[in-house]
UniProtKB/TrEMBL annotation:
InterPro entries in the cross-refs: CHIT_BIND_RR_consensus, Cuticle_Struct_Prot, Insect_cuticle
Membrane-spanning segments: none
Name of the protein in question: Larval cuticle protein LCP-17
GO cellular component terms listed in the entry, alphabetical order: chitin-based extracellular matrix
Record bears the keyword Cytoplasm: no
Gene Ontology MF terms in the entry: structural constituent of chitin-based larval cuticle
UniProt feature, compositional bias: Basic residues: 162-174
Acidic residues bias spans: 147-158
Signal peptide bounds: 1-22
Compositional bias per record (Basic and acidic residues), positions renumbered to this chain: 137-146
Pfam families the UniProt entry points to: Chitin_bind_4
Entry keyword set: Cuticle, Signal
Region Disordered, residue ranges: 137-174
């Protein structure tokens, strides 16, 4: 063997070893649970559940930390969709009691609470010229609908007349 061949052989071996040692090492382990972490255990004060065979139900829950939840549901309509009515409350971090009443029906979930945001009132009255323009547009739409209805009646009368003329000519000698 020649020196050149041995030198190339050593370079290739060193390159392969360098490549292998630079490969990522997958020795990740999940963090260990800390004994210092303490979780508050919250006592359940009330948990009443009633389920009837016809699909009606009620649920009432209360925890020692101030969380309360109650609801009642009844199947209604053709599809027996369950309409739910209820409320829940809890103590916010700032100490405020949050109470939400809700209805859940075929139109979705509808919460009601003093703490939920409300859309602002329209900032200014609508000017009279805008109201006049809206009224004028409505009148124009009504006039257009009336004209279209009259045109439809005229076309219907013409078609009726054509049918009558055609039926009179049928079977006549030429």
């Amino acid at each position: 063997m020649t020196i050149s061949f041995l030198l190339h052989y050593k370079i290739i071996i060193i390159a392969v070893l360098a490549l292998a040692s630079s490969a990522p090492q997958y020795n990740y382990s999940p963090p260990e649970a800390s004994a210092e972490e303490e979780r508050e255990v919250v006592a359940i004060l009330k948990d009443d559940r009633n389920h009837e065979e016809d699909g009606t139900h009620s649920f009432d829950f209360e925890a020692a930390n101030g969380i309360k939840f109650s609801q009642a549901g009844t199947p209604e309509g053709e599809d027996d969709a369950v309409i739910k009515v209820g409320q829940y409350s809890y103590i916010a971090p700032d100490g405020t009691e949050v109470e939400v009443k809700f209805v859940a029906d075929e139109n979705g979930f509808h919460p009601h609470s003093d703490l939920l945001p409300v859309a602002p009132a329209f900032p200014h009255p609508i000017p009279q010229f805008v109201l006049d323009q809206i009224e004028k547009a409505a009148e124009e739409d009504a006039l257009k609908d009336l004209e279209e209805a009259e045109e439809d009646e005229e076309e219907e009368e013409e078609a009726k007349t054509r049918r009558t003329r055609t039926s009179r000519l049928y079977g006549r000698p030429k």
